[in-house]
Specification:
The chain is α+β, with helices and mostly antiparallel strands and 139 residues long. It is 32% helix and 32% strand. The chain has 4 helices and 6 strands. The protein has a 6-stranded antiparallel beta barrel with strand order 1-2-3-6-5-4. The termini are far apart. The mean pLDDT is 93.
Length: 139
């Protein structure tokens, strides 16, 4: 019996909240946050678990979508509605999302790819799509 992506995300979100920001399984050794976002066109509230790294006081997420040739929906939603919230551990923070460009994007992407080589594989698999790097700055 397979699990839909929505069911899988719901299970991860439930585990995240029940365990004060910690999850097991394939995400056991990753830093995860819960990214709240509103549909770009619909405005529908959504939440996705997303791996992140810190850059000073900022949270950095990568729109890899596992190497898909298209960006994840949350990327488009953040571009349309950049003021949002994230859950990190037991905290909920108001943030503003912005896309890193040029040298900053390369620095952040290379930093995560050194520790998690699958990100380079995702970009290769994406068929020429450069994986966007989104910076979430607390307000």
């Amino acid at each position: 019996m397979s699990t839909s992506p929505n069911d899988f995300n719901a299970q991860v979100i439930e585990e995240f909240r029940a365990n004060r920001g910690h999850v097991g399984g394939m995400f056991e050794h990753m830093s995860l946050l819960l990214l709240h976002h509103a549909g770009a066109r619909s405005g529908t509230a959504r939440v996705n678990p997303v791996a992140y790294v810190r850059d000073g006081d900022r949270y950095v997420v990568f729109a890899s979508k596992g190497g898909s040739p298209t960006h994840p929906a949350w990327y488009h939603n953040l571009k349309a509605h950049p003021e949002t919230t994230i859950e990190v551990g037991t905290e909920t923070l108001d943030v503003v999302a912005g896309e890193a460009q040029g040298e900053e994007r390369d620095r952040l992407f290379n930093a995560v790819a050194e520790g998690s080589p699958q990100f380079r594989e995702y970009e290769e698999k994406a068929g020429g799509r450069q994986i966007p790097v989104m910076v979430l700055t607390p307000r």
